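Suppose you are handed a protein chain with no further information: no name, no annotation, nothing but its sequence. What can you learn? This example shows the usual starting point.
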Amino acid sequence: MASTVKESPDRPFTSGAIDSGSAFWESYISSRPSPPETFFRIIQTYHHGHEYHRTSVAHDVGTGPGNIARRLLPYFDYVVGSDLNADALAVARQLTQAEHAERMAFIKSYAEELLGAPVPEIARPGEADLVLVSECMPLLDAPKALAVFEKMLRPGGTLAIYFYGRPIFLGDNAAECNDLWARLADRSVQCFHPIKGTPSYPSYYRSAIALHSWLDNIELPKESWEHVERIKWNPDSPLSFCGPAGYDFELEVVDRTRDGESKRVFDHDFWTREMSAEQVSGYLSSVLPGYRDRPNAAGPLAEVDLLLQRLQEVMGGESATRKVTFPVSLILAKKR
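A reasonable first move is to predict its three-dimensional structure. Written in C-alpha cells, the prediction is:
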C-alpha cells in the first residue's frame, strides 16, 4: 500500500542545519572564511555615497551565529540579525559580548516574512539604513525577499547582497588541489540525489541557478532600486561550490542585469585564509550539513573519503596548510 504521508521538501543547507545544535555553528564559524575589513569598508563607502549618511540601523539577514552582524557594530548604532534557525540564534546571543548586547537583537524569521517579525521598535519596517544579505540569497524567493527588503529600508538606504563560494587553492600544486576540490564537491552533492522530480527540486534548482549565474539572475527592478553595482571578485572560478556534475538536472546561466552594473576584479589576495585538509573537510560539512547521513550517500562517500585523503597528501600532510582565496559576488543598490 502506498504511503499517504506527504514528503516534506528539503531546502539546500537550511534543512540539514535546522536541528544541528550549537556544535555545528561553532564549527561553522571556525571553518568559514572571515571577510576582510576592506570588504565592509567597500560597503560603507557605497552606503555613504549619493548623499546618504545615516548609520542608525543595520539588519543582517541570514545571520546564522551572528559573526557578520557583530562585524557591523563599528559602523552602525544598532544591529539586528535574523535567521530561521533557533540554534544558530542561540549561539549568536552567547557569542555577543555583554557590552554590545544593548546594541544588538537576534530574531527568528524567514527572510520573506520579516515585515511581520518581532523586531525592536528602532528597527521596524522603513527604519533600516542597511540591509545586508549574507550568504543566503540563493536560498530565498528573490522577488518576494526583495520586496520585503525594500519595505525594511529608509529611502536612500543600502541593500547589500553577497555570496562567497568554493575555496581557490593558491601556490604549489594549486591546479591539482582545485581539481580535487571540484571532484570532492561534486561527489558530496551527489549524496543528496535524487533531486530532480522530488518536492525538493524547486529549491535546489533555484539555488543552483543563482550560483551558476553569479547572482546575475537576481533582478533589481529600476522602479524600486537605483545606483546598482555588481562586483565580482575572482570570476575566473565558479561561484558555486560544485560543478554541473554535482546535480542530476541541467544548469543554465540567467542574466537579468542592466548595462553598466557589473565590475570584474581579479585579486587573489582580496579574501584569503590558510586552510588545512581538516578545515577543508569542515568547510565542506558547513556547506552541505548532513550530507554524510543522506539515504543514498554510501556510494558517493566512498570516493569522498578517498579524495579527502588524497587532498591532504597533495597539501603536504595532516598539519600542513595552504593559502586559499574565494570567488565573491557583491550586489549593492539604493532604495529609491
